[in-house]
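Chapter review. Work through the record for 4-methyl-5(B-hydroxyethyl)-thiazole monophosphate biosynthesis before attempting the end-of-chapter questions.
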Amino acid sequence: MKVAIILAEGYEEVEAVAPIDVLRRAGIDVLIAGLSKEPVASARNVRIVPDVSIDDLNPDELDLVILPGGAGGVEKLKQDPRVENLIKKMQEKKKLIGAICAAPTALAKFGTLEGKKATVYPALKDEIKPALYVDEKVVEDENVITSQGPGTALLFGLKLVERLLGKEKAKEIASRMLVEYE
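Structure tokens for 4-methyl-5(B-hydroxyethyl)-thiazole monophosphate biosynthesis:
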């Protein structure tokens, strides 16, 4: 299993690090990809050094791509044609795509949410149309998993583990992290 999370300057720390942590606890290889190989500053200036540049990612080798939220980061993701191209290739191959907080608005811009149920940070629900907004912490529809924000990041990560390795593995990780997960 190989997963990539794409960081752009202004990403939301919890929405990036919580899924990385949960997925790695499950033994999944997570690549942190930046729009370049330079350290990426978060919304609150936490800097993460990416493992790779987005240019190094091959959708044929990935099982899941994650877009974290953070308004500034999401705007940069939306404007980068490499991000759009990667997401569209993942969609064509019916591979998993995850987005949390404001990031589902990028999926909407790329056409990924058309005809799907999805969630987003509640104040942005009109920005994911034509998706059907669902007011739940984590929503999955076919190969797309969306979540609402920092407070839902652990559940989002656990749902991603469930989709990749099964419900029992997600429950095992949740139990060890003292997180309620059904």
